[in-house]
Amino acid sequence: MSTMKEQPIEQLDMKRSSYHLIIDGERRESVSGETFTTVNPATGEEIARVSKGTIEDAELAVEAARQAFDHGKWRHFPVNKRSRILNKIAGIMRARFNELVELEILDTGKSLAAAQGQVMQAIEDFEFYAGAVVSHRGSVNAMPGAFQNHTEHEPIGVCAQIIPWNYPLMMAAWKVAPAIAVGCSIIVKPASLTPLTAIVLGEICLEAGVPAGVVNIVPGSGQDVGNYLVEHKKVNKVAFTGSTPVGRKIMEKASSTLKRVTLELGGKSPSLVFADADLEAAVDGSLFGIFYNSGQSCEARSRIYVQDNIYDDFMRMFIEKTRKLKLGNPFLKETHVGAIINEDQLNVIDGFVQSAVREGATVETGGQKAVVSGYENGYWYEPTILTNVTQDMEAVKEEIFGPVVTVMKFKDEKEAVRLANDSEYGLGSAIWTKDHARATRVSKQIEAGIVMVNCPFSAFPGTPFGGYKQSGFGRELCVETLDLYCETKSIVAYYGSKPLNPLGI
Ligand code: NAP
Ligand code: MG
After folding, report:
1. Which is catalytic among the residues 203, 264, 364, 399?
2. CA-nearest residue, atom 38 of ligand 1
């Protein structure tokens, strides 16, 4: 293990050839000295080498986080001071916005517009929690006579935060900001495919004045580093975003230490287009709903159900616009759809499409790997619409996590609700209708954590984000998230003038 001291953190280029772990306020190589490369999925080219954390590094990070929590000053800072530092983190991110966007595009292959929106949201998340934590308060509860009760929120302790590759910086912000706002210490385990912006966020936290050991970043494999953190006795909580199968394993492993767990998992979100919808808005919203981020979104609206009497009109417009989507240089404003994260994921997506076709589905457009001029060595998939599908097909049941959408018809509201809820998942959902009463009625019946009414967007700082059913539990991005990084302490007191003698002796 060696410590990188050669250059002050604020003078580091965000885009560089090597990235390191952050442990106890220092940039470090891993104990083993091992590294791994991260790749630009748009071109297939290597971008940089990253120190590869292993169990030894995870242990050092837990020790540093424990020390910072048990004996450090961060959680005892006045809340205003923590709030100011969160705002400072946001300020540094704002000042270096373009560099963060560029790095995120390189590591993920996502389009400029997508990366800009996500980096901006990451910044706003820190600003949101800087504000929210100042008014995060306990309660005063009714008690008889001279008794009094109030509650206080205390930070839960050391938290492991494990994040996926689809929104690397934004997911890191959703986790880091609320946890450090309340005074926790954290160890972030970024996805192996996209570690760069989370590492840079760790560096920014140090530059902004977060004390050593409070924010540790340990890139490394999930099986190894992730698993070790989940089982560690000195870790109080694990916050995980990723796939449902890994989420299940994490919950099971966390049980031996009764760790607090929040899980943001997969989805298969339905979009219901009623005959009275603004058709243009429904088409545009549905395009964004599935093809944004190349469909690699947990809340992608990947099952569209259209009322039978407008189905033909909807499909004509939807297919026409899908064919107009541009794939290509992710750095161009006019590129709509970026690359797929890697070759494995590309093959998974194609596998779903081909199996649906074998089962009788019709490919209305797309349906294969895309060849993008100038980006022949990257991983690309054509925006794809499948029809003639049934609820029991894998392509309708399983999360594809790519630019593939299935479209089916429904007769009436009752059938629409039944089809929407016929899924193991329950993350997002969308309703397109001009009838306010219908929107209200249907949104109450949908089994999902988020309902978008005539709206393509699901997540703003302050709005709860999380799932029902197999999409997990706990809510992020909102005020309640602060509670999930705290224990509630109930303080019961007696202020009577006569001493109490409960045993009557
Ligand atoms: P994943 O395979 O579950 O991995 C997520 C993270 O968990 C990665 O950092 C991974 O490390 C780590 N990990 C893997 N196995 C582990 C283990 N046994 N113990 C501890 N950690 C482990 O998911 P993904 O493919 O990266 O991301 C896609 C999934 O995330 C999709 O299902 C998507 O729906 C979901 N997602 C959900 C939300 C939401 O808010 N609900 C948001 C975004 C994404 P490695 O990278 O080293 O494998
Ligand atoms: Mg990468």
Report:
1. 264
2. 298
